[in-house]
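Researcher: Go.
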Amino acid sequence: MVATHVLANLQPIAVWAHFAALCAVPRSSLHEAALRQQLIEWAEAHGIKSLVDEAGNLILRKQASAGCEAAPGVILQGHLDMVCQANAGIKHDFERDPIKVQVHDGWVVAHDTTLGADNGIGVALALAALEEPGLVHPPLEVLLTVNEESGMDGARGLVPGTLQGATLINMDAEEWGHFYLGCAGGVDVEVRHACAQEALPPGYALWRLEVSGLRGGHSGIDIHLGRGNAIKLLADALHDLSEPFDLHLVEMSGGTARNAIPREACAVFAMPAADAGLLEAWVKDELEVWQEWFAESEDNISLVCRQIESTAVKAVAREDRDRLLEFLDSAANGVDRMSDDFPGVVDTSDNLGVVALRQGEFRATFKVRSLSDERADVLADRMISHAASYGLRAWTDGAYPGWTPNPSSDLLALCQQVYTKEFGQPASLQVIHAGLECGLLADSHPHLDMISFGPDIRGAHAPGERVEIESVAHCWALLKSILQALAAQPQGADASRAGKVSML
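Model: Structure:
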């Protein structure tokens, strides 16, 4: 694979060449087929066996280095898809266009879209390991799952017994210097309502209210940073507007993914045309309040209202307008509780990720995460009850388990020894408030001893996503050393290790 000229000279060359190839092939969730086929052809050219399972996952297998055939097999795991987000006004077709990457101050970045370092760098590291000349390694298995970002369908559909290895290294973490040994589980909360509609009064004009300029981010990793949620802000503005003005709500939309903090949201509403001057002053005052609220976390927040031409003749009935706006304004969003066991780590949270109101049909999607599956269920049930109190239908969907930490893991002990030898001190141990696939993989393959690590990635799930070049080189050095150490493990080590794996 040949890297683009932007990445061609970065070290390690093999890893960045693979990442460049990934950036050239669109790979949104549910649209990974083209990339998967390209990787199958690459594997065939390199003498690497490949198979695609019933769920669509790609599994690549390579024999152990000479003399290491008896060592327990190792699985390197990542996901093929990426979150697709672009800044307002940017024309980028994520099903056709390659990602435009740049190198800036030691980072690889996509300024106007998501980069796909989550999880493209992890995939690139695994592929580079398969072709690295002279690397001493055990039997290698690379599991590349599909549709991780919008449902974890690949990991969910993995048939028990598919994987042959005894240990698994997940390459989907986003902060160098940590070994992750646990992650949050999650569940979606879906809300729906069919609104009554009524005709717009004569003499009323239509306006479009737009919230934009927010930073957004990953709904797990960034949920505690105090960033604005565009949907919540829009609902707050519309709720406040409906008190002094006779506001008739026509449409509303915001967010594109339940696992991304929404950066933009907009609404169309009708008001007496004579109130245009008062509306302009109100918007100006509201924006000033927001700028004060988010002075430390959002420096480009924008609230714009402009009159529009439209053929719309109906709006949501007043009772349903109040119902929706009061629900959205009061709905839980953000950190619910911090972890008692891991200082500074969020335990339970939710994110109002997507909302839409068109032709009277309302829908909203929340993403709930927790280090405890029980606490995730409790919060989801509370949110369903909250929706029901406003007469809205709500239910859960897409639940997946968390990954329970196992501090006594043999794999962790070996990785710490290797890390200390390579970098002069042990890595810190951490859990992550995000949904790694390890919980689902432990369900289907409970014998696996697992760990996760990765480079420094910032701004995942939002435009401007970037990955630090130096930390990628550190990950590559660590991965090679771990594989070499595992190659020296005696046959039967997997049997003693299996008894220590924490079950979910």
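Model: The mean pLDDT is 93.
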